[in-house]
Records
---
Amino acid sequence: MKLKEMKIKELFDTSHTIAERIFDNHTYAWEVLPEIGDFIRSLGPLLPENEYRKIGTDIWVHKSAKVAPTIMMAGPMIICEGANVRHSAFLRGNVIIGAGAVVGNSCELKNALIFDEAQIPHFNYVGDSVLGYKAHMGAGAVTSNVKSDKSLVVVHAEDKDVATGFKKFGAILGDGVEVGCNSVLNPGTVVGKESNIYPLSSVRGCVAAHSIYKSQDNIVAKENREEAPAPKKRATRKPKVVK
């Protein structure tokens, strides 16, 4: 995956997040990680009061969101329309959970931007990361956001290494990425849109869009397949309205 393929516009349709403006004047998604908290504090007071309720300090929750009473959370944070935050989730602040997104049982999030309809459903850790529209992490998959030697994270593109200057940086997942169960995304991982990561993978570096990651030395491009025609719908009668 070359550096130009990691640009924000190559990874995401930013219309699928309430935080679209955070990407203004940035080239790569990891550049927004230090700004998530301040962005939430600036956006939260502008959210319509008839749609969002404010909880405690700097936490805004859409009234249609399903939030289990057993979660632990700290601000700043925004939970958007129709999101589902389940039992025992631990939300540590600087978190945006997009519309229709799922944060499941016993998941932990901190300093994370989760696009609309992304799913983090079972026993996941997501820290210092961005997950794109409809990205999905299988059960037990985690982002590792600190290197074992505590050195600064470097993004290893195919054509160039990029020093981020961050001690903590997990992963960037493009739109539609599927991460298999119990996989580890090592610090500075970038996965292009619509790619699949096999279960039990340890991913280092970058994975190009529309790829299948089987192992570090076995990454293959997805085959182009023509879409099957949609099945014909059966004709149905509309029920009569009794007046």
Note: The first helix runs from residue 8 to 11.
---
Amino acid sequence: MNLTRVFLVAVVAGLVSACPSATLASDDGASDRGAALLGPFKKNLKAALQQGMMDGIPTAITVCKDEAPALAAEYSVGGVVMGRTSHRLRNPSNTAPLWVNAVVEGYLEPDSDRQPAVTRLDNGRWGYVEPIATQPVCLACHGEPLAPDVAETIAAEYPDDQATGFKVGDLRGVFWVEFPGEQTASPGSSNGG
């Protein structure tokens, strides 16, 4: 992975204070916290997609369009913001913050190991990203060729779709979460009355 290139993208964007595509040596538990914050979102999205697939792939497409953003919003509370994105978007409302794009670019490098990444952001917040690898089941909606009813549903729901033509193992996208750093008492403050 070309860390210099990713670092320069992040610095030019003025959004991060450390290389976004590598876990920082001292991340104050941010990596574990990011993974824990994403856990319920990923679990519930997977369950919704599995249910949608049982009702047919066009239904699963609707689940992705309607339920995925609703789940992300449900878990984006208390200063936490999360979502999904990709370098080839299906839904333009899945555009992520610039710091996430720098991590995605790193994942696209030929020698990338695509490990989860944690980033310290300039504003005292942390960012955490997990890659989504294309699995065989993903090809029904993201592979090529698509079944006619699937292609028709995607064209109707996403007229500017860019998210087909993937192969098993390709980077399909990422889950991301941004959250506040742990709050500590400032010097001279008291915890009592």
Note: The longest strand covers residues 171-180.
---
Amino acid sequence: MNLCCIGLNHTTASIALREQLAFGPDIVVAALRSVCQLSVVSEAVIVSTCNRTELYLATEGDASAAAQQVQSWLADFQGMPLPEISAHLYCHHAEEAIEHLLVVACGLDSLILGEPQILGQVKGAFQTARNAGYTGQWLQRLFQHAFSTAKQVRSETGIGAHPVSVAFAAVHLARQIFTALREQSALLIGAGATISLAARHLRQQAIGELVIANRTLASATSLAHEHQAQAMGLTSVARQLARFDIVLSATASPLPIIGKGAVEQALKARRHRPMLLIDLAVPRDIEPEVAALPDIYLYRVDDLQDVIRENQRSRQVAAAQARTIVAAQVAEFVTWQNSLGAVDRIRDYRARAESTRDAVLAKAQRLLAQGKPAPEVLTYLAHTLTNKLLHAPSEQLRQAASQGQEQILVAADTLFQLNRKH
């Protein structure tokens, strides 16, 4: 069995390519089913966010050959030529795959260093795969280990001490454009962790009006109640768009929610007062053509890099501490993984010893039934059992000694705790 991670992220691929390779919640289970139909794949988890698409796999046979098959599957499933995506993919095996997952779960590979949302996204991806029956011993143990590592990093370092996230960067950008947010109105589209965090940051900046829209009105209402906001359904967005100075969208919709025409109508109703549109979704929620309209400031995830870099500096020391924790946890997982190599041997050795014991015991019981004295039967039992259990190891040691295989003899000293000096 091999552990493998194949994927791409914000450092290896453009937002356009990430959109094309994203797995929305409506297709992720089908994708898991499809990839696990490959003969080389026994377990799978797909992590797909606005900044990354990654497949964590337990594979059989040659690791490199399995990875090539999965990359071909990815291209076919997403309807793209493999040469167009292969240069943007990374492939990690064994310890590198373990380390990568731990680094991702801790937020050390995120666009914003140490952001906490990724842990929830990874947990959600794992839960989806487990509920669908596509995880087993290996990935279940690996992901649980990643979650406990992330918890340790959060509690023992300052990686989460500062409010740094995509949502925070977006609100920071809004403050740069509008200065006093208490005079502005904001529309948040979606109901996930990013929207919730953006709502909290906007409330901290005393935003004048806050409305949350979602396809499911009940979800929008629940989140709006939590942040002292209003709620609306997604079908009302185009009609109400002109009310808002700031629009931040982060949904999992496969198609744009806000089109150029709706924004043009909103600008006309606003008499061309400027609007800030922030699109944090992959695939995009706002048609890219909107950026060409006058009086529109349209920013996407990749446009927040400058704000993000400034906030990352405060987390570098904590990140170094976190890397030390991750390295130790990788070693711990590898130790557990290696220990499994002895499990089958121990089971087989015990089974053989127990079989020998049962055979000798049965013979001793027959001797007692025949009237043999108990001391004589006990002596037979002890001698015979000892000889049978020691016969195979003794023969192997004699053969090793006659052939000069010193390493076997040294290993025997350790295995049998003989404490001999060589």
Note: Residues 2-156 form a domain with the Beta Polymerase; domain 2 fold (CATH 3.30.460.30).
